[in-house]
């Protein structure tokens, strides 16, 4: 009888231990949760598009392809300052490859070709929308030493889609080459002379208003230019329309 009781007690203890062990295992098992997959939010940039219409208002000056640069703060050129080498290249030869590589540009584009007297061309520039957005324009007057026209900076930040801005432009002297007007130094069709020359021989060396042409009929016998190449301000008209 005593052995039976002892056996029952042993079985009871064993059952209790097993139960406790099972309970202990359940309590200590970590809770495995399914991972929450968070899909990344993709924000598509807002693109602004501007269509620029550029008109040559002169009677005898071909203009080089219009260069347009979009930027936030620092303009690629400013009146009264020394011209960069890239602007010098544009103003002396019409070549704009270096100019369009402006390091602070948000976007840059060139019109397809030169624009003759009385002609109009169109160019489109697209750029990601910015809180502050400015456009700068430049084109050479071909039958000059280093004259160019354009706008240093035009704020288009608040221009709504469908809205337009219209500006006329004057002629500037890049201040990088003396206005000798000789056949050797004027690259346009009036002379077909040299374009860019890295030597700066203009005593000013800053961007100023261009004084105009002194033609051979005016008494400058060494000038390759005639009265037909003279120009009055404004020399061009720029219309900017936001199309997107």
From TrEMBL:
Q: How is this protein named in the record?
A: Spondin domain-containing protein
Biased region (Low complexity) positions are 176-185
Species annotation: Pseudoalteromonas distincta
From the UniProt annotation, give the residues forming the signal peptide: 1-24
Keyword terms, alphabetized: Signal
The membrane-spanning stretches of this chain are: none
- Give the classification, highest ranks: Bacteria, Pseudomonadati, Pseudomonadota, Gammaproteobacteria, Alteromonadales
Q: Where is this region: Disordered?
A: 176-195
């Amino acid at each position: 009888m005593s052995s039976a009781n002892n056996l029952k007690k042993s079985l009871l203890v064993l059952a209790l231990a097993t139960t406790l062990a099972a309970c202990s295992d359940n309590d200590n098992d970590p809770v495995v949760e399914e991972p929450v997959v968070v899909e990344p939010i993709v924000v598509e940039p807002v693109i602004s598009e501007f269509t620029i219409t550029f008109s040559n208002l002169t009677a005898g000056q071909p203009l080089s392809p219009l260069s347009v640069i979009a930027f936030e703060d620092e303009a690629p050129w400013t009146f009264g300052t020394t011209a960069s080498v890239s602007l010098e290249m544009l103003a002396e030869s019409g070549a704009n490859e270096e100019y369009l590589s402006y390091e602070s540009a948000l976007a840059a584009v060139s019109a397809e070709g030169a624009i003759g007297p009385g002609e109009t061309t169109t160019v489109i520039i697209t750029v990601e929308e910015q809180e502050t957005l400015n456009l700068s324009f430049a084109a050479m007057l071909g039958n000059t030493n280093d004259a160019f026209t354009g706008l240093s900076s035009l704020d288009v930040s608040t221009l709504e889609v469908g809205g337009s801005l219209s500006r006329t432009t004057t002629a500037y002297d890049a201040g990088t080459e003396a206005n000798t007007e000789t056949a050797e130094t004027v690259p346009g069709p009036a002379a077909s002379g040299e374009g860019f020359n890295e030597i700066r021989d203009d005593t000013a060396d800053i961007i100023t208003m261009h004084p105009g042409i002194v033609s051979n009929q005016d008494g400058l016998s060494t000038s390759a230019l005639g009265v037909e190449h003279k120009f009055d301000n404004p020399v061009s008209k720029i219309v900017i329309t936001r199309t997107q």
